[in-house]
Amino acid sequence: MKRHYGKFLIAALALIPAALLGQSPTPTPHADQAELSKAEEWVLSQGTDESIAPELAAILGLGSDRLPVKLKSFRTPGGISRTFAVSTNPIQKGIVLSALKTMVDKMTIYSVGTAWLTDRSGILRETIRVDASGASVVSNTSRAAEFKDIKAFFVKKLEATAPSITSSPSPRISATAARGKKETK
């Protein structure tokens, strides 16, 4: 019995590398995930320095103080600010996407809308609904379509501002060919 078990174990060990070769050695990232990483880099390099309110940072699990961020924000014709904020605090990493409209009611100013916590992977971590009474955690599935839309919005904004990032490189003339063209003129 031990002899047969040993042969089976050796045969199984021999098959494992062959099975692994049939699999992709590294998972292929989803297009949105790769593009979200690029959007994060874009916001970090070109965004403005701001901070997220302590209440929102706390409910997102990013600390109880104001969270320093770099952000890019775009206002829609309806007055909604679509914002991509990247934490600049090395301890509390995260990306907060939001679609918020600022409201004024007599002497009170507040925001209404949704904020989402994600990271470079683009995976939705937390969904927050914001209204006049404050912020509260809601089901990720309740606003998943909006999250997908806002990610796509920022990917399009990135592509519009940096078309060379997503387009294929153009053919280039070698230095020798370029010199040759100068000499023939």
Q: In terms of topology, how is this protein built?
A:
Layout: H1 2-21, H2 31-46, E1 48-52, H3 54-59, E2 67-75, E3 80-87, E4 95-105, E5 108-118, E6 126-131, E7 134-138, H4 144-161, H5 163-166, H6 175-184
Antiparallel strand pairs: 1-2, 2-3, 3-4, 4-5, 5-6, 6-7
Describe this structure in words.
- β5 (108-118) and β6 form a beta hairpin.
- With 185 residues, this protein is α+β, with helices and mostly antiparallel strands.
- The chain has a seven-stranded antiparallel β-sheet with strand order 1-2-3-4-5-6-7.
- α2 packs across α4 (144-161).
- The protein is built from six helices and seven strands, in the order ααβαββββββααα.
Output the structural class. Answer: alpha+beta
The strand order across the widest sheet is: 1-2-3-4-5-6-7
Helix content: 40-55%
Q: How many beta-strand elements?
A: 7
Q: What do the pLDDT scores average to? A: 76
Q: N-to-C SSE series?
A: HHEHEEEEEEHHH
What's the number of helices? 6
Radius of gyration: 25 Å
> What percent strand?
25-35%
N- and C-termini, Cα separation: 86 Å
Task: Kindly list the characteristics that best describe this protein.
seven-stranded antiparallel beta sheet, alpha+beta
In short:
The chain is 40% helix and 30% strand.
